[in-house]
């Protein structure tokens, strides 16, 4: 039985789309059963509808408290019998209550190599610090923002002529590979929590390194 996944979005939804595309493979262990946005104008809602996926907007501005908003989301998630929640550019902080409901079943993608650069403007901050490598992380969601056990990371080089936009675009290409990979690992039951570490069953050897700048 495939796991039923909800993608929570607030905007364009390119990571959501990468999950939808990956889940079209009959061998993929999850299906994207619902797309939920806190913004009725999120472009990703239309993309999901075109794919025949249930797409629901729950406008947070119509609720008097964060809890009420989240209870409305929780009802919709239950109605759609959702097993796993993937935050995909969802720009609302979640309360410990909601996070608890989805403990071990809610993922987030962040455009940086955590625990570096939690929060916003990650590409600007990486450039300002002069790091030579940057990237993206998929992690389990816990109450602290951009904290939680790390499932998968992708690293890209930072080039001398990079702007936040070019660097962000290079990271995004990797995000679109990383999120389906992490969801596949979770949905197929290959992830194991060991304290703060996520251990992966039947992990393939991967002992190469990305060194930047390139040495010719
Ligand atoms: C991505 O960079 C993701 O890492 C971050 O928000 C952005 C969402 O982009 N959490 P999209 O809506 O998936 O295109």
Descriptive keywords:
216 residues, Rossmann fold, 2 domains, 9 strands
- The first-to-last residue Cα distance is 49 Å
Biggest sheet, open or closed, and with what strands and sense?
7 strands, mixed
What's the helix count? 6
CATH topology grouping of the largest domain? Rossmann fold
- The amount of helix comes to 25-40%
The name of the CATH superfamily of the largest domain reads Formyl transferase, N-terminal domain
Q: Identify the strand order in the major beta sheet.
A: 3-2-1-4-5-6-7
The topology string of helices and strands comes to: EHEHEHEHEHEEHEE
| Number of spatially distinct domains | 2
CATH architecture of the largest domain: 3-Layer(aba) Sandwich
Average pLDDT works out at 97
The first-level CATH class name of the largest domain: Alpha Beta
Fraction in beta strands: 15-25%
Bound molecules: 5-O-phosphono-beta-D-ribofuranosylamine
- Structural class by helix and strand composition: alpha/beta
* Poorly predicted parts: none
Number of strands: 9
What does this structure look like?
- The chain is 32% helix and 24% strand.
- The chain has 216 residues and is of the alpha/beta class.
- It has two domains: 1-102, Formyl transferase, N-terminal domain (Rossmann fold), CATH 3.40.50; 108-216, Formyl transferase, N-terminal domain (Rossmann fold).
- Strands 3-2-1-4-5-6-7 form a seven-stranded mixed β-sheet, with helices on both faces.
- α1 (14-22) runs parallel beside α6 (164-187).
- It is globular, with a radius of gyration of 17 Å.
- 36% of the residues are buried.
- The model has no long low-confidence stretch (mean pLDDT 97).
- Bound molecules: 5-O-phosphono-beta-D-ribofuranosylamine (GRF).
């Amino acid at each position: 039985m495939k796991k039923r996944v909800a993608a929570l979005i607030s905007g364009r939804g390119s990571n959501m789309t990468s999950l939808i595309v990956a889940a079209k493979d009959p061998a993929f262990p999850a299906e994207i059963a619902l797309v939920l946005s806190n913004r009725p104008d999120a472009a990703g809602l239309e993309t999901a509808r075109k794919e025949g996926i249930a797409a629901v907007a729950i406008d947070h501005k119509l609720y008097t408290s964060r809890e009420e908003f989240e209870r409305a989301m929780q009802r919709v998630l239950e109605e759609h019998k959702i097993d796993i929640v993937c935050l995909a550019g969802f720009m609302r902080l979640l309360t410990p209550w909601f996070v608890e409901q989805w403990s071990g079943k809610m993922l987030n993608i962040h455009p940086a190599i955590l625990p570096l650069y939690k929060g916003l403007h990650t590409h600007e901050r990486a450039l300002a610090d002069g790091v030579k490598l940057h990237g993206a992380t998929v992690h389990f969601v816990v109450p602290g923002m951009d904290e939680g056990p790390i499932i998968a990371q992708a690293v890209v080089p930072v080039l001398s002529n990079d702007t936040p936009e070019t660097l962000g675009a290079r990271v995004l290409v990797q995000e679109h590979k990383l999120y389906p990979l992490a969801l596949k690992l979770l949905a197929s039951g290959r992830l194991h929590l060991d304290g703060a570490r996520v251990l992966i069953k039947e992990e393939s050897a991967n002992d190469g390194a990305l060194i930047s700048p390139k040495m010719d």
